[in-house]
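Morning - adenosine-5'-triphosphate inputs below, output right after.
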Amino acid sequence: MNLNVNQKKAIHYVSGPCLILAGAGSGKTQVIIKKIIYLISQCHLNPNSIFAITFTNKAAKEMRNRISDKLSHNITKMITISTFHSLGLRIVKSELNALNICSNFSIFDEQDQITVLKDITKKNDRTFLKKVRIMISNWKNKLINSYNAKIRAKSIIEKKYCRYYELYEIYLKSCNILDFDDLIFLPTLLLKNNELLREKWQNKIKYLLVDEYQDTNFIQYELIKLLSKSNKNFTLVGDDDQSIYSWRGARLNNFSLLKLDYPELKIIKLEHNYRSSGRILKAANFLIENNPHFLQKKLFSNLEYGPIINIIPARNEEEEAILVSKKILNHKLINSSNYRDYSVLYRSNYQVKVFEKVLINFKIPYYVVTRSSFFSRPEIRDLLAYLKLMLNSNDDIAFLKIINRPSRGIGEKTLKKIKSWSIYKKISLFDASNSNELKSFLSSRSFNALQNFIILIKELKENIFIKPIMVLDNLISTIKYESWLLKNLKNFKLYKISLNNMHSLLNWISELIQSNKNKSNTLSDIIYQFILHNELEEENPEDDKLQLMTLHASKGLEFPYVFMIGMEEGILPHYSSLNNIDEERRLTYVGITRAKKELFFSYSKIRCQYGEVIYTVPSRFLLELPKNDLLWKKNNVQKNNFLKKI
Ligand SMILES: Nc1ncnc2c1ncn2[C@@H]1O[C@H](COP(=O)(O)OP(=O)(O)OP(=O)(O)O)[C@@H](O)[C@H]1O
């Protein structure tokens, strides 16, 4: 592949801060990979001193694989390629003393956080608990601890939330637990306040590369600055038109800040798109021109102009699914293509349900890309909780998760007494359960059940570092987990899936232990990675299936034929984001630029939402596209003649 002039410039510019403003499909992944190879082979940088940050673990893995095609496996292994969270975890593990954290710390995921917040707030309303979790997360992502949050709080309500934050912090500290946000919050705070450690890390990192810069938030930008302060040798790659995570704190402002903080910043634009036909790019350019820009850029393509963009109107959601399915079947027949060449993209997860029903009827093999990862399955969460408790007996949430899985006859009353005792004695639930003094408060049956559990964990713990697989095998058979699953699931197929999952987990741990034989702390590292690995499920690319996914999930992917469904006001743009139309437009732009050869839109005249039938109007974004490149199919539906009821 011949690199274009700007791609070469972007790779060869290594003497100062560099921003690559890379349009969709302009080969940014290629450029980052080639730049890393260039830094090692031409600039003779030690691979140990190159750090690349990607948005997902999957992207990190892919990048590593592609580099190892060009460099030896040993050299590739020395390069740090990780997400912000994994890099943060590495800093935390190296600086335990400075952070005052014990080495056996656990990591909380979102579900664990909610469980703790339920206890702290004494409320059982999930929406409320999620809100508190997000508020705490937002504080941490702005580098604000509970003390400072309290000082800034004005209203009584704000003060109340700050109190929750404070109690949450105390809880985590006492149990030696970090949450996801801490993995960036703690290292950033540490490097900001500790000059010696800051210098140590700055000396370690001779070159920093960050992919998907448009999705960085406040704290991530701070961390980038802290890590690269002394040599300012970094390359950030991003596209302001593809920033779709403001709801997670991503800030487009990070582009403008860069120019202010680094006046010497070199900006290189990649505008040559190698993915999409001319017509698709024209539509994308037309649409995104309606947004404000950090710097103007216009994508161009040398590929053929391509067929007209079809807009398929439907009378209702079911008809929309039928028309799209029929179109796919016809199109596939005419073009001798495969199902895997097609993708259906939508704004919200609930839109897929009606499609699934129709696809099954039409016998179209399909795959829904979901965010529920392998690690969120109940049996996997159970086994990981057992492991977490063996490694950190202060992890009360792991304790609560498994104390009655499988059921041991330890009911709510007993748990309440254990909790009271642990609060009174200021010890963990595990230590409270291990205390003989508890005997007088419990029935002998409950006390014995509890003791058996404690003995089990203690015995397993003895060998966990030496023979983890044997310990897990023992655990599963001792607690009769499989027969409990069968009884609980009441469905043989689900039971089989669960067994397979457990088998995969054991194999996975065993492989990871083998490949990390000489490293210390292997098991806890493996568990940390499992907890951080909360990404989209992967489908075997060999499977010939139509892929359905949200627009967010489609980022970074490409398909020959793309169907964007539900192109209606209220759906896209989504009614909850009407105050952020620019981001909804960017989301539409991301969808359009996934298509290589052909693009289709569909919308439905009537839609059922929350049990109510509503009449819709076509999305404003359809009306922003170049008219002559669109073909509105007829379906007795006049595009401007809808009742607007949203
Ligand atoms: N110089 C080049 N010549 C030919 N093809 C190229 C060149 N650079 C990149 N490509 C191809 O362009 C396509 C898009 O590249 P890539 O996936 O890296 O884009 P991207 O910038 O990451 O896109 P997006 O941000 O939209 O996900 C790939 O198929 C890649 O092989």
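Note: The chain has 29 helices and 17 strands.

O.
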